[in-house]
Write a structure and sequence with these properties.
By secondary structure, the chain is an alpha+beta fold. The protein folds into 3 domains: 73 residues, 2-Layer Sandwich (Uridine Diphospho-n-acetylenolpyruvylglucosamine Reductase, domain 2); 121 residues, Uridine Diphospho-n-acetylenolpyruvylglucosamine Reductase, domain 3; 176 residues, Vanillyl-alcohol Oxidase, Chain A, domain 3 (3-Layer(aba) Sandwich), CATH 3.40.462.10. 36% of the residues lie in helices and 20% in strands. Strands 15, 16, 17, 18, 19, 20, 21 and 22 form an 8-stranded antiparallel β-sheet that branches. The chain has a 5-stranded antiparallel β-sheet with strand order 8-9-13-11-12. The chain has a 4-stranded mixed β-sheet with strand order 1-4-7-5, with helices on one face. Strand 21 and strand 22 form a beta hairpin. Helix 12 runs parallel beside helix 13. The longest helix has 17 residues. The radius of gyration is 22 Å and the shape is globular. The two termini are 42 Å apart. The structure holds flavin-adenine dinucleotide. The site of flavin-adenine dinucleotide has 36 residues, from strand 5, helix 3, strand 13 and helix 10. Its cofactor is FAD. GO terms for molecular function: FAD binding; oxidoreductase activity. Pfam families: FAD-oxidase_C, FAD_binding_4. Belongs to the FAD-binding oxidoreductase/transferase type 4 family. It comes from Metallosphaera hakonensis JCM 8857 = DSM 7519.
């Protein structure tokens, strides 16, 4: 293994796949136990010019951990919660901590880290930060970007830096915390994270499950809810194909209906107004008790897993449009379904305009063409090709098109220059994200 054994770090030879079947064929997989071991690994890669790729839990949906002949750095052995500060309201932890585990520990102390990607029970916090993941509570609490205070990072040269401070108000310099958050492992390996936490909310909330006539009326509910100034904690939608997949693959026992399910959690004080809006749009609504809600929330989280059980081939879209353009987006998605003669089951963080139409075609070429067309719908409606899953390999071309169209090629040039400054040898998770988006956009000039 060319000297890697001499580093004294646990190492294995194995191939992997991520959740959507992107291949990971590393030279070897390593399992560092602490930051010093990460530094040794990065220095080893830097000296030899070998690609090095961090791996959290591999639930990426965009090929962000795929690689060949790289060193794969699996962070699972760096999984300690280092400090929960109940006065300064932060938690400091290593990147390999599982998100659900972290929140369980926080809740024991009355605190919460709100972002909850539907993979919360699988994913690592390092992966969630590097992806700037969102989730079901995103409509109220935003994405991971809104919760990271500070980071320790091993740069691609092997140097270690700390960016940010463990408190909210800090104006000392450019915002590097948010440069590394969402950088998809292309700028360094995160070894420690400080998250802002909040006390578990004490307001009384009510949970609603509404059987909707269709997705258009669901969009109508969301738009009227916003006009009425109602901010839900959760506003999630799954169409009936997803409900059916949950029933057939996970024995969910959910009632199937033509138009799918809208799941809402709102403050008790907003219940009457919310019900009035739901009724107006034809929702058949039931109020859930806490136990029923937890079951529905958990099923929603497993929706992608149920779809994956039906079709091994799965392209997960992650488009976002301004909520005011939701109906236009839905119309155009329906037209694409007609054009390609295929139905895309939709999971949506509908409250913040984030739609996941899922392409389950086995014909790769058609799937990729459709994938691109759906992405372009978002760009043309003033939205984004990714709200939370990130770019990886899969959406790099679309990202290039979006940034060029909305911001200009100069923006991509600046992003590429940042990558080059921090990673002069181009070893850190190379050939993806900004690097690939820039290359694609330039070749398309
Ligand atoms: C069933 C399912 C549901 C999902 N639902 C959601 C959702 O609702 N919202 C959402 O946003 N995402 C969702 N995802 C996508 C994904 O699970 C999340 O984005 C998750 O946070 C990624 O975490 P991970 O630990 O698996 O990271 P990985 O997939 O291992 O890695 C993700 C990226 O982070 C980098 N990385 C990992 N660890 C580090 C580190 N320590 N330092 C630097 N870079 C690092 C990797 O190189 C890669 O680029 C879902 C995925 C699945 C399978």
């Amino acid at each position: 293994m060319g000297g890697i054994d001499n580093l004294g770090i646990e190492t294995k030879i194995e191939e992997r796949e991520d959740f959507v079947n992107f291949k990971v064929k590393p030279l070897f997989v390593t399992f560092p136990k602490n930051e010093e071991e990460v530094v040794k690994l990065v220095q080893y890669a830097y000296e030899r010019g070998i690609p090095i790729v961090p791996w959290g839990a591999g639930t990426s949906l965009t090929g962000a951990v795929s690689c060949e002949e790289c060193i794969l750095v699996d962070m699972k052995n760096m999984s300690q919660i280092l400090e929960i500060n109940e006065v300064d309201w932060y938690v400091r932890a290593q990147p390999g901590v599982n998100l659900e585990f972290l929140n369980r520990k926080l809740m024991e102390r009355g605190f919460l880290l709100p972002p909850d990607p539907a993979s919360f029970f699988l994913c690592s916090i390092g992966g969630a930060v590097s992806n700037s993941s969102g989730g079901m509570r995103g409509v109220k609490y935003g994405t991971f970007r809104d919760w990271v205070l500070a980071l320790r990072v091993v740069l691609p040269t092997g140097e270690v830096i700390q960016v940010g401070e463990p408190f909210r108000k800090n104006r000392a310099g450019y915002d590097l915390v948010h440069l590394f958050t969402g950088s998809e492992g292309t700028l360094g390996i995160i070894t420690e994270i400080w998250f802002r936490i909040i006390p578990v909310p004490r307001e009384t909330q009510v949970s609603l499950l509404s059987y909707m006539p269709d997705l258009d009326s669901t969009a109508g509910v969301i738009q009227d809810m916003r006009r009425a100034g109602i901010l839900p904690e959760i506003a999630e939608y799954i169409d009936n194909d997803v409900v059916h997949a949950l029933n057939s693959q996970l024995n969910a026992g959910l009632r199937e209906s033509k138009g799918g399910l809208l799941m809402l959690r709102v403050l008790a004080q907003d219940l009457d107004r919310m019900m009035e809006i739901l009724n107006r749009w034809g929702g058949d609504t039931v109020q859930l008790n806490q136990e029923e809600w937890e079951r529905v929330y958990s099923l929603r989280a497993q929706s992608a897993i149920a779809l994956k059980a039906i079709s091994k081939e799965m392209y997960v879209e992650d488009i976002v449009v301004p909520v005011s353009r939701l109906m236009d987006a839905i119309k155009r998605i329906r037209k694409l379904e007609e054009k390609y003669q295929v139905k895309m089951p939709i999971i949506a963080h509908i409250g913040d305009g984030n739609l996941h139409p899922n392409i389950l075609l086995s014909d790769r070429q058609r799937a990729e063409e459709l994938f691109e067309e759906v992405g372009k719908v978002a760009i043309e409606l003033g939205g984004s090709v990714s709200g939370e899953h990130g770019i990886g390999v899969q959406k790099a071309k679309l990202m290039g098109i979006q940034v060029k169209a909305h911001g200009g090629i100069k923006v991509l040039e600046i992003m590429k220059q940042i990558k080059d400054i921090i990673d002069p040898k181009g070893i850190m998770n190379p050939g993806k994200y900004v690097e690939l988006a820039y290359r694609e956009a330039k070749s398309d000039r």
